Amino acid sequence: MMFRRVERMAACVSDMKAKKMSVKSLITLVLIGLMSIIDVVVTESVTRPRGVSLTNEPFYRDSQWFTCLDGSRQIFKSQVNDDYCDCMDSSDEPGTSACPQGKFHCNNRGFKPKYIPSSRVNDGICDCCDASDEYKGPGATQCSNNCRELGRADLERRQQEIILMNQGFDVRQEYIKQGIEKKAEREESLKKLREEKEVADQLKDEKERLKQEAESPEKEAKDAHKAVWDAQQAVLREERDKQRANEAFDELDADRNGLITPDELADHKEFDSDGDGEVSEEEAKVTPEDPSPVPSPPEDVNEGDASEEDLDMGDHGDMNDEDEEDFADEDDEDEEFDDDLDEGELMEKYAKHRADYEKKKEVKGKGEDGEEMPEYDEATKKLIEVADAAREEFKEAEKQVNDLKKSIEDIEKLMNVDLGPQQEFEPLQKQCYEYTDREYTYKLCPFDKTSQRPKAGGSETQLGNWGQWEGPDENKYSKMKYTRGRNCWNGPDRSTLVILRCGLENKLVSASEPERCTYEFQFETPSLCTTKTDVETGEIDSHDEL
Ligand code: MAN
C-alpha cells in the first residue's frame, strides 16, 4: 500500500513538472505526499487515538498507561477517549467533546491539518475537511472528505500567485532598467544645467556691472532735473502759503479793518482753545502775520461769492478728472460735510481734506499748482533709455539664473530620494494611486504625500509627507513612512505607514486608521517582486535581497 502511494506521488510530481509548476508548489506537494506516507506508516503500524496529531502520537503509544500531557496524572490507556474528562489539561479526550478545553486535531490529509475546539466534535457541523470531527450523529453521514479538492484548489491558487510573482519580477526588471536610465539622464541634465548656470552667473554679473554703469549718469541727470523743479516748487509753496493765510484772515476780518475782533470770531469755535464755549479776547488774538490757528480756505471759496454749497467736497477744487477718480473711493469713507456744521467746523474739515489732497498730489509727483514735473531734457531721456535697456538685460540675465537654479534644485530634490538599491521604485515617483472605502478616497503619491478626501465632498486632508523607508533591516523597502501630515485636533500630526508587497500592478489595495489619525495603507507593486521561480527546473533562479 505504501509503495502504491509513493508511485502515485512520483507520477503526480512528474505530471506537475510537465505542467511547468513552480518549486514552491512542488515542495508543497512533496510535503503533502511525505505526510501521507508517514501518516500511512504510523496509522498502519501504530494505533493513533482519534483527534491526536502526528507530533503528539508518541505520548499515546503505551498500550497500558497514559500520562496526562501536563504530567499531572497517570490513567489507564482505556480511559483515553472514553468520553470522560480525567486530565486537567483535557489531553485524555483528544477525540471527544468531553473536556471543555480540549482540542481536536483534524489530519485533513491532502490539505492543511488543523486543530478545532473539541466542543465541535460531533456537533453536526463539518469542521474538518476529512470529516473526522463528525463520526457519530447526523454529521457522520452528512460530512464527507473534500480535503483533496481543497488541496488542489489551494495548490492552483498558489501556482497562480507564483505565476503573477514571476510576471511581476519581469516588470521589476523593466523598472530597474527605467530607473537606471532615468538616474543617468538626471545626472546628465544636472551636469549640463550646472554648466549653463555657471555661464549664466557670469553673464548676470556682467549685466549687473553694465546696469550700474548706466544708472550712475542717469541718476545724476535725474537728480539735477529734480533739484531745479524742487527749487521752483519751494518758491511757489511759499507764495501760496502767504496767499492762503491772507485769504483766511480776510474771511474772518468781516469789516475789513485789518483786525479780527472777538465779535468776528465769536462764531468760530475752533479758536475756543480752552473749550469754555466762548472765544475770549486772548484766544482771538490773531493777525495776518500770525494766522496759524486759521485754516486755509479753499481757493474756490475765495474766488467770487463762495457759498457753503461750494464747499461740498464732491467737487475737489482744482483736481482734474483723473484726480477725482483716484480719490473718489475715499470720499465714500469721509464723513459727509453736512449743512448743519458751523463755519469753523467746516473750515477745519476742509483744511484736513485739503491737506490730504496736497499730500496725495505730492505722491502723484505733482507740483504746487498741480502741474506735473516737466519732462526730462533729451540728454537725460537718452540716459534713461540706456539705463532702462541695461536694467531689462540684467533682469533677463537674472531670470535665467533663477530659472536654472530652480531646475537644478528640482532635479536634486528628485535625486535625493532613495528609489531603491537598483532604482526599482523610480516609476512610482510622480504618480498617485487611490483607494476608496465607505467614507473616504485615500491617495498615495509615493515619495511625496498621502491624503484623504471625504466621498461626500469637502477638502483634502494631508495624512503625511514623504519621510523614509521604514521596513526592518533585512527588508527595508517593504514599508514607507509618511509623517508631518495635518495636525489632528487634540492629537498628533497625522501620519501614514504604507506596507508594500509584490503585485503585478501598482495598486493601493486598502487603507485603514488603526489609531486615530494614524493611517495604514497596503500597496502592491512589481517593484517588490524580488524572486523568480524557474518553471523548467522548479528552482528559484533570481533573488534580490533588498
Ligand atoms: C477627520 C479624518 C479622520 C480622523 C478625524 C480626527 O475626520 O481625518 O480620519 O480620525 O478627522 O478628528
Automatic annotation (TrEMBL):
Gene3D superfamilies: EF-hand, Low-density Lipoprotein Receptor, Mannose-6-phosphate receptor binding domain. CDD domains: EFh, LDLa. Residues 240-275 form the EF-hand domain. Residues 300-312, 320-345 have a biased composition (Acidic residues). This is Glucosidase 2 subunit beta. Residues 380-414 form a coiled coil. One of its GO terms (biological process) is N-glycan processing. One of its GO terms (cellular component) is glucosidase II complex. Residues 208-378 are annotated as: Disordered. Residues 430-531 form the MRH domain. It comes from Patiria miniata (Bat star). Keywords: Calcium, Coiled coil, Disulfide bond, Endoplasmic reticulum, Signal. Residues 208-228, 236-247, 346-368 have a biased composition (Basic and acidic residues). GO terms for molecular function: calcium ion binding.
